[in-house]
User: What shape does this take?
Amino acid sequence: MLRVQGLTTRLGGQVLHQHLALELRSGEVLALVGASGSGKSVLLRTLLGLIRPAAGTIEAFGQDLTALNPQQMRAIERRWGVLFQDGALFSSLTVAENIAVPLKETLDIEAPLRDEIAALKLALVGLPPDTGDKYPSELSGGMRKRAGLARALALDPELLFLDEPTSGLDPISAADFDRLLADLRASLGLTVLMVTHDLDSIYTIADRVAVLVHQGLKIGTVEELRRDDDPWIVRYFGGERGRAAQARAEAENGG
Amino acid sequence: MAEEGWIAAKPGGGEGIFAAGGSWLVAAAPALDRQLGALERSAPARLSGRQRVHVDCVDLEALDTVGAWLMLRLKAALGGRGAEVSLDNLAARFTPLLAQAEKYHPRETPRPRRGFFGPVDVLVALGAWATIGAKEVWGGLDFVGEVTVAAGRVLRRPRYLRPMAFLSQMQRTGPAALPIVGLLSFLVGVVFAYQGADQLRQFGAEIFTVNLLGIAFVRELGVLLSAIIVAGRSGSAFTAEIGTMQVNEEIDAMTTIGLDPIDVLVLPRLGALVVTLPLVAFYANVMGLLGGAAICYLALDIPLPIFLSQLNQALTGWEFWLGIIKAPFFAAAIAVVGCREGLRVSRSAESVGRRTTLSVVESIFLVIVLDAAFSILFAQLGI
Assistant: This one.
């Protein structure tokens, strides 16, 4: 799905990633974690083509993104969806219009069908139908994230990038969001790369975890990473919150 | 790429037997929508009894949520007419998608379309427009009152004054505006001198070009030009800055810390502009007269000393002050409108843009209205 090799990113004279490698397998959920300021968001933005890497290759769907012309890049962008941290909904459009934007841009589609598809996506992410007529500023944080997800899913992408999908949500909404993602992923066959801090969502839905330490990535399942001796990783999974999340996950699986 | 989605009567299948195939993906949705529409129309309006309709999905290669929903929509449309629809040979991997699409229930009643715009609507719109206008004026006066009270408080207790904010606003509204104000005033001076000289030459009174230029610039043009340029430069900046802070909830944060946005944001800007605009206007006067003097020398052969002595005769000290005295009032209007529009931004990017436009239009409008009021006042006073 996505293969990154030898990626080096420099921003303002500072090296953020060095010889970073990453492979996203088809159908998996990979969680990207790392300390604040370690460059998670920069990595995500680099993968999306918003930041040009200093060196290395990024391959998505078998094509090297750094070698594509803008037209080819647009074709690639149609095949992935992105949910930004606070939804990044266009504030001057209603939620339904927001979802319709990618449809309008890429397909020659008539208004009634477009409205129906927008409403379908709203139902998919579990929002009530009347949300479609509201403006983003009238929604709660959790609803904004769901609406953002609906827009990301507008073109039925194969690959989904999520930037901190559960941050800022109450635990119930966060758990609901995790369940929604797991559900959608199972039925739509999505491949997901998500930047997250939320240990609960890592235990619930992530297949593998990529930890951004020392300008590179350590990738493995939670089990494998817990055996790692990097001090940051040890504190991340072995700390109080890590253990509590693990206990909750085990209790849920056991019960 | 797989074949695009299609649906058709199954060859040799008889009535009520269809076949669907290809990729039922969102990219094919417009084409599929048309095919399905035609198919639904061609089906008998009332399907007899418990007729079964079969859709053979054996050739279906790919399906996404949109395709799944279209499939369900067909099922519901034919089902509504009494038929029982079955999707045959549907691959097992597609069933979760159908389950997802089943979450969506189209609205029973379509959204009401906006109807004809009749005479009553015109009256309603007119009424709404008038109420909004009245509220606007009322709100503006309200804000002026608030700012006045805050200004009074600061003047009585200068420790509320924010010197750094005040000085940085002075820097941004004053010296930074000089190049553009200077250039434009110079050019207007050039144009004015040319046009005036052309007319006055017919009477052999070229020398009075100096009087015309002097009076026009010192009493009106200098201050008016600077006020309009500053409204475009700084008034818009006030609205955009404060508006963006409003979008980021910075104003709310300020209030919860116990800071009054009027004290922190409005007063430094207001104070700075009231101080700088008269100075900018003075500079505009000088540059405008300089432009005129250049033309007088080049086109009318009036050397600078004669220009100056003629100007000295034309202008009394009064004239100068009658122009400059208007500047602080214009400045206050620009700052108050700019800040108020900024504070009225709601939490969207579009609203920042709309408010900024409004702010510039309103402040230029107010400047010209105030100028007219001053003209009438001065005429009544006989000065």
